[in-house]
Write a structure and sequence with these properties.
The protein is of the alpha+beta class and about 350 residues long. The chain has seven helices and 15 strands. The termini are far apart.
Length: about 350
């Protein structure tokens, strides 16, 4: 459990009261409600664990505050807004920051499994069912909103997220999104690495993760393109795009990370190396052809040439161009199992 400082102050030295019960916690710190202050309505505070309260982190947070882009929806990407301190305003007393409270009742993991989370009510289950054209279209619109949020940030050419995953995307039942964990991003300026990413997650990282050190190397934006593709595939089909059992010479590759590094995408040119392909992959054929091509470029062509992966902006363009009736219902006889 993260130990809260006895006295927390904002950048003006004014005391801030925090609810000791965390709204959420992770490896870097915990998030707390701000109580009894109208100045911070709809805002929360992130308090870092002691080992994370470094001068480099303080400088990074200030950079993020000073370089917040002008977003169409201020809640779509949650940036730090103000540093906070223990006792008095001093960089050596830095403990965290204030940010907007993210929209969304749940995070995206609730819709990325084969069946929606049982924590969601019937409205969610009906709206985002994978059997009907309407349900798949609603999932695609959610993909669009996620892509639009990331596109705004990528256009600045300052930020690469590196650790994009469903846990860092909050969602509402009407498809609004809030991207969180912005303090972990990589920051570049004029091609120079200013602040490295804090972490990455293997199953959302591209094949080149074995050649790049996210702590010291400048990670290209094409890394994020792969991560977005994985999230969209899981959202549409309920499983990781590299899920499957391979035959020789890849029969010992059991983890998604291993298959990612080998470029073993079941819908791609290396399909002959799969012995068992889980049934949900079959529904790939139900997707509009334009979306199928984006996934194939992301995981197949992009394995050999990362710039071929579709950008967040291109996902927006294609997703907005596809109508609901182009999503084939799963009950249709048009779905055929491929002869693997």
């Amino acid at each position: 459990m993260n130990q809260l400082p006895q006295r927390v102050v904002n950048s003006e030295g004014q005391k801030i009261e925090l609810d000791p019960k965390a709204l959420g916690s992770g490896g870097e710190g915990s998030v707390h409600s701000i109580v009894g202050s109208s100045d911070y309505h709809n805002h929360v505070a992130k308090i870092y664990h002691e080992k994370e309260r470094t001068l480099n982190r303080y400088n990074k947070i200030n950079y993020l505050i000073d370089h917040r882009p002008d977003l169409k929806d201020g809640y779509s990407v949650i940036f730090p807004e103000e540093p906070i301190f223990s006792g008095s305003v001093d960089p050596n007393n830095f403990v965290g920051f204030i940010m907007k409270k993210a929209k969304g009742e749940v995070d995206l993991t609730s819709l990325c499994t084969l069946k929606p989370s049982m924590k969601l009510d019937a409205h969610w289950h009906h709206k985002f069912d994978r059997v009907s054209s309407a349900g798949m279209f609603n999932r695609a619109r959610l993909c669009y909103n996620i892509a639009a949020a990331f596109s705004q940030i990528h256009r600045t050419k300052h930020f690469v997220f590196v650790d994009i995953k469903p846990e860092n995307i909050r969602i509402t039942s009407d498809g609004q999104v809030s991207i969180i964990d912005l303090d972990s991003v990589q920051v570049v300026e004029d091609g120079k690495l200013l602040f490295s990413a804090e972490k990455h997650t293997g199953e959302y990282s591209p094949g080149e993760m074995g050649q790049l050190d996210f702590k010291t190397d400048t990670i290209p934006e094409t890394w994020d393109r792969f991560s977005l593709g994985v999230i969209f595939y899981k959202l549409m089909f309920g499983l990781h795009p590299f899920t499957g059992t391979c035959r020789e010479p890849y029969h010992n590759m059991v983890s998604n990370e291993q298959k990612i590094e080998a470029g073993l995408f079941p819908q791609g040119i290396r399909v002959q190396y799969f012995d068992v392909i889980p049934e949900p992959h079959v529904h790939f054929d139900n997707l509009p052809k334009l979306l199928q091509r984006l996934f194939i470029r992301c995981f197949d062509g992009g394995h050999y040439n990362p710039v071929l992966r579709p950008s967040a902006y291109e996902w927006c363009q294609v997703l907005s161009a596809v109508s609901q009736d182009e999503y084939i219902p799963r009950t249709s006889t048009a779905v055929k199992k491929k002869a693997y």
